[in-house]
Every structure is written in structure tokens, then in C-alpha cells.
Design a protein that fits this description.
The structure is a single chain. The protein has 2 domains: 63 residues, no CATH class; 39 residues, no CATH class. 46% of the residues lie in helices and 4% in strands. Strands 1-2 form a two-stranded antiparallel ribbon. It is elongated and about 45 Å long. The termini are far apart.
């Protein structure tokens, strides 16, 4: 599958769900099936669609259910480690090699 075809199919489907005010539970079921099917055919641009609809819970949940998350991407300032956890996590940061550093919450700044 050409990379942009999957994105066009996915993004167009989400637009229809939003325009028709489909309830979140139904939208998530539809999107779970769609994400899984597009991944099977080699969709490599999931992160862009996830970013585009990051404020729509059915999209975030459908991607999470299929192994794709909005990554925290916090960087540890001394070593340049990049956090692998999902945005908004409430545990300390950790990179893909297991290096950990303290999560600084807003009230601790």
C-alpha cells in the first residue's frame, strides 16, 4: 500500500465519523478494524493521522489498541534520552533502553 493511501482512507473515515456525530464507542470499533486492516497492508504513516486527530478519543484509543501511541518524547537534558511512554503518563520517564529519569510534574517546577 502506498503510504499516503492509508492516511487518506483513515483521515477521510474519521472526518465522516465526526461530521455524522457517531458516538465514541461505535467510532472506536470502526477505527479499530480500520487501523488493523491498514497496518496489515503496510500502512507506515499512522503517527501523522494520530497527531491530526489527537483530540478525538476514538482515534487515540483505536491506535493504542493497535500498538501505536502518542509518545511523550520528553528529552533527558544530560544524555538526550527520549521518553517512550504515552503522552500524559504519570510514571517516571524511560527510554527504549531502560534508562529512567524523574518525571517533573507542573506543581514541582
Amino acid at each position: 500500500m502506498h503510504q499516503t493511501h492509508g492516511t487518506r482512507i483513515f483521515d477521510s473515515t474519521v472526518q465522516v465519523l465526526l461530521e455524522n456525530k457517531i458516538n465514541h464507542a461505535t467510532a472506536e470499533k470502526i477505527l479499530n478494524i480500520l487501523v488493523n486492516g491498514l497496518q496489515i497492508f503496510g500502512w507506515a504513516e499512522e503517527q501523522g493521522s494520530l497527531e491530526n486527530f489527537a483530540d478525538y478519543p476514538p482515534v487515540v484509543n483505536a491506535f493504542r489498541n493497535n500498538g501505536v501511541i502518542l509518545q511523550c518524547l520528553a528529552e533527558e537534558e544530560n544524555h538526550g534520552w527520549i521518553c517512550k511512554h504515552e503522552r500524559g503518563h504519570d510514571i517516571d520517564h524511560e527510554d527504549h533502553l531502560g534508562n529512567k529519569w524523574k518525571l517533573i510534574r507542573d506543581h514541582e517546577k
